């Protein structure tokens, strides 16, 4: 795919953001900021799957990503898996394999590829200040659209049946993509920020899009999340109800931020399993 094919997607991406790609290959294992992985870490095998690193054509070049899908068959519904602030590391790859076992073509593009390699940074605040804060929303939406195009053309994916899920930083992206993209049928947002400061990189927040969601989103939040206050979750619920949205939010009373991340101490098995089951039902119910 030539880069010119994507110019019409989001022309507001500024030339300075079409920089040299700083990440050309995915990291192996877990990001250094979250190593070592916990004893409860889930490992999903690749038996019966085609799974591994891929290169995805995007505006200005290619970004690495991880793709997992059933080895046989085709016309698979596509699910975009959006990373945490730690990039596409082993946990995100494993989530892709879980989706592939459920019959999806799962694609996790490395959305920080232009801004920097977070896999080797040990300090979370440094990850945010030097990389994540420099990633424009417009770039992310464009790259996700490109990933859908690529999966439809190169991975036996059905570009008419697209879902998206994301975690933490990626949870915020899910709400936005459900509002801005015409590709997606359903979204599942895990503890994504709903409110915050606006700037040139992130001009709007999910709550600003509550009345304009083009696809229904199911949100999963923890009542013990110290980073996303329950007042923010309540405000989002109210905003969705005012417009009679089909979207919904589930709050787990004993869960913290990152409750789905089985490689971290925040993992809550009961909440994670319940959310995953609800996610799969939600996707199928909404045509993805």
| Rg, Cα atoms, Å | 17 Å
Q: How much helix is in the residues? A: 25-40%
What strand line-up does the widest sheet have?
A: 1-2-4-3-5-6-7-8
Largest sheet: 8 strands, mixed
Query: Outline, from the CA principal axes?
Result: globular
CATH homologous superfamily caption: Alpha/Beta hydrolase fold, catalytic domain
Give the class-level CATH name.
Alpha Beta
Q: Oligomerization state of this entry?
A: single chain
Along the chain, the helix and strand elements come as EEEHEHHEHEEHEH
**What gap, in angstroms, lies between the N and C termini?**
25 Å
Number of strands: 8
Question: Can you characterise this structure?
Answer:
The protein has helices spanning 90-101, 124-130, 137-154, 169-180, 230-242, 269-285; strands spanning 49-58, 61-70, 76-82, 105-109, 157-167, 184-190, 217-222, 248-252. It is an alpha/beta fold and 288 residues long. The chain has a single domain, classed as Alpha/Beta hydrolase fold, catalytic domain (Rossmann fold). It has an eight-stranded mixed beta sheet with strand order 1-2-4-3-5-6-7-8, sandwiched between helices. Strand 7 (217-222), helix 5 (230-242) and strand 8 form a beta-alpha-beta unit. Helix 3 crosses helix 4 (169-180). The model is unreliable at 1-18 (pLDDT under 50).
